[in-house]
Structure formats: structure tokens, C-alpha cells
Amino acid sequence: MTGGYLKGRMRREDIITAAIEVYREAGYNGSSLREVAKRAGITHAGLLYYFPTKEALLAAVLERRDAEDTEREKLDIAPGIDLLRHLIALAEYNVAHRGIVEVYARLAAEAVAPGHPAHEYFIRHYRIARESALATFRTLAANGELRPGVDPEAAAVAFIAMEDGLQVQWLTTPDEIDLVGSLRFYLQSLLTVPLG
Amino acid sequence: MTGGYLKGRMRREDIITAAIEVYREAGYNGSSLREVAKRAGITHAGLLYYFPTKEALLAAVLERRDAEDTEREKLDIAPGIDLLRHLIALAEYNVAHRGIVEVYARLAAEAVAPGHPAHEYFIRHYRIARESALATFRTLAANGELRPGVDPEAAAVAFIAMEDGLQVQWLTTPDEIDLVGSLRFYLQSLLTVPLG
Fold it and tell me: Fewer beta carbons below 10 Å: N end or C end of chain B?
């Protein structure tokens, strides 16, 4: 039983890894479950056993991305200005990987409907993102690095919103929007110390 | 010829009006072209003559919404703090009309792909929105109402991003996100005078 369960877990993780590669290269519209199955070395029917819909697979892809981001943060980075620098580095990474940003933006908008396969994922994702940003803004405030008048809670909601909104504008007209520069400008405007 | 053209224009506008009603009530998933056709008093095939896809119809719905917003702005409101107050009032209106906000958010994310029927609409929409915000932030700066260090161009991009991003968070968890309050907080943080 345990062996079968473990094998299933591993197969599931292999499919997610294959999906990340496929979507990173081809974006939302250019990708198919068949292509992912092929890359993972599994039949299309086999893939559907683990992920009955494209949306369910994409939610798992985004969940993996969050877990990797969180893992990295735990290892290296305490809440505060270093975390903001890390988030800017993540934005730089995103600019170089348009496909996965498109998956995130599309799924976030579709999944606002309760009942969507990724709805629960996005509720969790936003809560964790806001909590992480809140911890950082509180640390900055305690260090005197947050501009007076900036409320950490409101800034946390606003910062996550800004990241999401900038991504959609950038995806629409990549030549007109400086995603990283805009994010840096916004974060700097909240601080009393240079973001660097 | 001209009579036929005019009749076609009017029919087209009637369909858009019907679609706005249907989507305002039922949201993105609850609506269908058949329901819109019924409301507009036209056959389904007749509707498809004017709008071959749901996406093309929704782009026209959003275009109408923009035109109405712009018309109102031109009549009453000069760039500056009154325009910001007007935008907050629009956000209050949106909170009471979830369906149309959902249409906007979903279509914006889908339409990042060149070739999507609403792609050109969103390029225009974002350009106009950013220009309007830029004019307002420049006026505020000239009046000494913009906080020193706030760059009007960066603030314009950031403000539109913030609006979009807040909508998606609010649509996902309406009970956890104060859309209007968050927007007000952000705008106030850019100003030296009370937003009121």
C-alpha cells in the first residue's frame, strides 16, 4: 500500500515537473496535456488519472512554484529589506519566463469563481503572500525603514495587487512596461532606506 | 446603404446594451450568447453576425464601459484630485456590480495573447488609462499636491496595476479584501492633501 502510494506521489511530481517545463516554454495557449504526458513518459489516460483537467494540473504547477519560493525564503532570507530584494529578483526571473507568468495570470482570473479547480489554491496563495508581505513590512517598520504613515497591512494587500496588475500590463505590451523597474519604484516609495 | 448601415449600428449597440445587463447580473460563467440574443430580441444566428465569439462581444462591452467613463470625465471632471475621487466612486460602483468586474479581469488575462479578439482593445485600454492617470498626477504635481519623490509616470503605471490586481484579490475573497479602502489608502499615500 505504502509502496503504491509513494509511487503515485512520485509519478504525480514527475508530471508537475514536465508541465512546468512545457508551460515555461510554450505558454498557456501553446501547451496541451498530451504534450505534458509525452514529456513525463506517461500515457494521456494515465495523466488524466492524476489530473482530470488542465486547470487542476496548472494549480499544482503554481503550488509547486510557491513551495519552491517559500523553501528558498526559509533557507536564506528573513522578513525585511532582503526579502524585498529577493522579490525583485523573482520578478526578474519572471520576465525571462513569460509562459509561467501567463499561466499564473490567466488562472488567477478564471479561478475567482468558486468551484473552479484552482479556486482554493488562489485563496491560500493570496493569504500566504499577504502574510509574508505583512511580516516584512512590520519588520521594516520596527527597524524604522518604513516611511512614516505607511500602514503595513494596507501595504501588504497593495503590494500583492501591484505585482499581479503589473504582470497583466506587461504581458499585454512587454515593450511598454518595465515590470521590474515599476515594482522597484513602488517598493522604494514605501521605504526610508535605499532598496539598492 | 446609409440606412442599412445605421440600422446595423443601432442593432449592434442594442446587443451590447443587452450583454451589459446579462453579464452584470450573471457574471462570466453564468452568461451565454443565447441569453444575450434573447434579451436583445434577435436570433442567435443574428447575434453571431455582429459578434462571432463571446470574446468579441465582451471586448465591445468593455469598450462601451470605457466610453461611458470617459464621457462622464470629459463633462464633469478635470485631471487632478477630483478625478481621483471619481475613480474611487467608480470602484464603489464596481463593488456593487461584480459580474462586469469578473468579465474585465478574465478577459484582460486571456487577451494578453496576441491574436485574442480583445487583445487590441486591452492595448488601447491600458494606454488610455495610463495617459489619463499621468495627466492627473502631473496636474497634482504642478499644484504641489503630489508627495515629493513621486514620479508621475511611474505612479500612473502603478496605479492602473493596483486597480487591476485589487480586483482579482477582491473577486477571489470578497470578505477579506476592502477594494475601495485599499485603493483610497494607496492614492492617499501619493498625496500631500486629504483625498477626502
Answer: N
Q: What is the predicted ipTM?
A: 0.87
pLDDT in tens, B41-86: 999 999 999 999 998 999 999 889 888 877 766 666 788 899 899 8
Note whether B182 contacts A113, CB cutoff 8 Å.
Answer: no
Q: By CA distance, what is B190's nearest residue in A?
A: A189
Measure B86 CA to nearest chain A CA, in Å.
20
Alpha-carbon gap, residue A10 to B16, rounded angstroms: 50
Q: A116 with A110: CB under 8 angstroms? A: yes
* Cell numbers that stand for B157 in this block: 503605471
Domains of chain A: 1-52 (1.10.10.60), 54-189 (1.10.357)
B51 alpha-carbon distance from chain centroid: 20
Q: Tell me the nearest-neighbour CA distance from A106 into chain B, angstroms.
A: 5
Please identify among residues 136-165 of chain A the ones whose CB lies closer than 8 Å to any CB of chain B: 149-151, 154, 157-158, 160-165
Q: Are B46 and B35 in contact (CB under 8 A)?
A: no
Structure confidence at residue B4 (pLDDT): 75
- Which pLDDT tens digit goes with each residue over A139-161? 999 999 999 989 999 999 999 99
Across B188-194, average pLDDT: 94
